[in-house]
Structures are given as structure tokens and as C-alpha cells.
Amino acid sequence: MEIRKHLHIVRRQKKVDWTQFLCGIPARDYIFQKEPYEEQITQASAYLKEADHVLIGAGAGLSAAAGLTYSGKRFQENFSDFIKKYGLQDMYSAGFYPFQTEEERCGYWCRHSYVNRIKPPALLLYQQLFDLVKEKDYFVLTTNVDHQFQKAGFSEERIFATQGDYGRIQCMKGCHPRTYDAVSMFAQMVQAEKDCKIPSYMVPKCPVCGGPMAMNLRCDQYFVEDEQWNEAAENYGKYLKQLKKGKAVLLELGVGFNTPSIIRFPFEKMVREHKNTELIRLNRDEAVIPESFGERGIGINRDLCDSLRDITIEIKKISADHLQDS
Ligand SMILES: [Zn+2]
Known about the structure:
Largest sheet: 6 strands, parallel
Strand order of the largest sheet: 4-3-2-8-9-11
Order of helices and strands: HHEHEHHHHHEHEEEHEHEHEEEH
Bound molecules: zinc ion
Helix content: 40-55%
Distance between the termini: 79 Å
Shape: elongated
Low-confidence stretches: 1-25
Strand content: 15-25%
């Protein structure tokens, strides 16, 4: 009894920070690498230049760096009426706001989709990324739902967007395995919106159960993985088999610790399991790399715009040098 009591006290005293828990369990040897930035860029460029396959893993940090920021000026400019009426803080938390009516909920989401998915053209950072890998056997695994990869020219057959699409809707309860293109519907709703609400006749209903519709986003157990999603998952599976043949680079961009089990941890597992695989992790704040990866892991802790631009310049330099030599 005495021992149990003691243990209880010890446990209570030890504070657990969830981010440390996530960092600490899969890779106990996470470090911020000490090599100078220029050296890291040179090394990363050489890896990419020599790679047969480039698997891109992209998280929220990539779209934020590209310009699709969810707070600050961009949020205030596009949602001033919603901020005034509901006290919304940013576009991320706004997605969880308990709107009381369907007219209000759709009013928010059509604007959100319009601002982040429908209106923006292919952003420069995504275009640069496409130029970097278009000649390679590439594939994109992403948690982003803003359609930027498709807009920038990446082939649909080479993209697996695991968490959905701001441009599609589904039955809120997932009663049938289909999703629906909502791009033109949202654009019309945005036009018709008044006082943060859409007209009642515009509220979409599930064609099967008659219930409300929701965004096709993985936020609860009702997320619909439709035919297209399953096809993309299959393509990704096939690509992973190819990846084992030849030299592979995993180019991880802006993936934090929100959902690390989709990209970050599996990428680390691939590096551990396959000797011909290298990891380039570009992340403004969290470019920690397992020390045990040695030279097969590069973690560059910088703004993605800077590091991707510098890698592109360096690769062009290497190519020019090769041409001169031959
Ligand atoms: Zn339904």
C-alpha cells in the first residue's frame, strides 16, 4: 500500500507535455542539425539531383508558406463580418464553431472554400516545387485540402490527398460512399450571402437520406473515402513498391505534429527500413531529424520559400556545371 501511494505521488508530479510525448516515442534521438545552412542546401540539392524517385510529403506549413495563411490580415480582410458577429479568431478554429443554423454554417464554409480553394490561382511556391520534380518519378502525399498541387500542374494520378478537399461535399453522416463537386455551388452561395447567411433554398441536402451535407474533410468518423480517394490510395501503394527500386528521396515540406502519423512518422520508418532512401525535411520550426539517420537525413529549419528557392538555384548550378564538364 505504501509503495503504491508513493508511485501515485511520483506519477502525479511528472508533467506530460503531449508534443514531447509525440516527439519522444518514435524518435528518441531527434536533433536540430548543426551543419551550416549552405552546406545543407548543397547536400539536399545533390540528393534530389541523383534521385530516381521523389516522394513529396506536404503539410499545412507548405500552404502557409505559399501564402494561404489562416490568421492575421488575410483572415480579417475576408471575414470581417464573421469576426464581428461571432468573434471568430482564425480560419482554423472557425471550422469548429457551432453555428446554430444550416444557413449560417454553409455561409461560413462557402466563404472558407472560396477564399482558400476556389479563388487562389496556383501559388508560386507550388509552381516552383513542380518545376523541381516534374522530370522525376514523383508522387505527392498530402494532408492539404486546398487543391494547390493540381493547380500547379501535378498529375492527379500522382497525388494522394488523404484528408479530403475543400471543393467537395458529402453526407454529414456519410450514409453513402460518394462525394460531390461543390465548386460552382459555393461560388454561387458566396454571391448570394447576406449577413453571414446563405438563403434557405440554397442549403444542400443529402440526395440519399435527406439529411444535411458537410465538407469532405476528415474531422470525424463520417469522413467519406469515395472511389477517387480509394484509387489515389491504391496509386500511392503501387508507387511505394516502385520506390524500393533505385534511389529515393522523401521531400517533406511543412509537416508538423498535428497529424504526424500520416506523413512524418511513416517517412521516418521508410528511411529506417530502406538503405537507398534519404529524407529532406524542410520546416520553419520543427525540422528535427533522428540523429541515427546520419547523412541520410537533412533537416532544414527555415522558411520554406527560402530553402526551396535556394535548392532550386543550387540544382540549376549543378546541372550547368555538368553541361560544362561534358
Ligand atoms: Zn445521407
